[in-house]
């Protein structure tokens, strides 16, 4: 190619330059782009250039890793494996424990519904297996962190020793046993309930019979009136149908081993081998082929009750239906 130009005096001059024609194949161009033997460049950069880049990023990411490690070390130094940093009123959980129940359906879609056919062995087994899995740690102490060595037998006159916890026995659960399939084949199922754990929470008992609230069921009032003074240190539990129709359909109930959680299991302080005490609710004659809404409520001075579909407090709700 020739390019013409003219100077200020009108005298023309010219020079020539040529671009070498690139007759390389595409494959040759790719190979040359990866490594150029004439300039000793790899991917368009010399070894010195690549070395500088690698050194920069090595120093950069090493610094980031060190900063992250320091931050994590400082954070973890503020945490305790056994004691939460925020407790009671300063925690999200708060100071008002609720109740939980078992068995629960493995299908999330079923929600809090316990539904089965009493004459369907496979159906029954699905629910009893869920209870067996839940109760396994209560039956087999070798599943506990210290194999149950940190547990002791307690009663109202024998509180746990320092750093010890009270064992939870399933021996007094009446007919609610694995051997009896928890009475599910007889259409008289047992449902287990427990109080949700809140670290360092201490119950305030109805130790004075004059402090009993007016809305407490009369049957529980009679039970409290018949108990010895030391037995009043109990978190009481009542269960019934939610609506009037549910109360008619639920039938009689029996609670094992008693109508509440003994006070010597509290406060919960995350000691090794601790297990939550349990109550087995035995439904003696629930109406079959009918959906029954069940509500169980815990009773203590500092357990506040609130019935709400979105924010239930001091109680637990589940549904029972037997074909």
TrEMBL record:
Compartments it resides in: Cell membrane
Membrane topology qualifier: Single-pass type II membrane protein
TM regions (residue ranges): 54-76
GO molecular function annotations of the record: ATPase activator activity
Membrane in keyword set: yes
Pfam family, one: Na_K-ATPase
Protein origin, superkingdom: Eukaryota
Listed GO biological process terms: intracellular potassium ion homeostasis; intracellular sodium ion homeostasis; potassium ion import across plasma membrane; sodium ion export across plasma membrane
Keywords: Cell membrane, Disulfide bond, Glycoprotein, Ion transport, Membrane, Potassium, Potassium transport, Signal-anchor, Sodium, Sodium transport, Sodium/potassium transport, Transmembrane, Transmembrane helix, Transport
InterPro entries xref list: Na/K_ATPase_sub_beta, Na/K_ATPase_sub_beta_sf
A single GO cellular-component term on record: sodium:potassium-exchanging ATPase complex
PANTHER family associated with the record: NA_K-ATPASE BETA SUBUNIT ISOFORM 4-RELATED, SODIUM/POTASSIUM-DEPENDENT ATPASE BETA SUBUNIT
Family: Belongs to the X(+)/potassium ATPases subunit beta family.
Annotated function: This is the non-catalytic component of the active enzyme, which catalyzes the hydrolysis of ATP coupled with the exchange of Na(+) and K(+) ions across the plasma membrane. The beta subunit regulates, through assembly of alpha/beta heterodimers, the number of sodium pumps transported to the plasma membrane.
Protein name stated in the entry: Sodium/potassium-transporting ATPase subunit beta-2
Organism per entry: Melanaphis sacchari
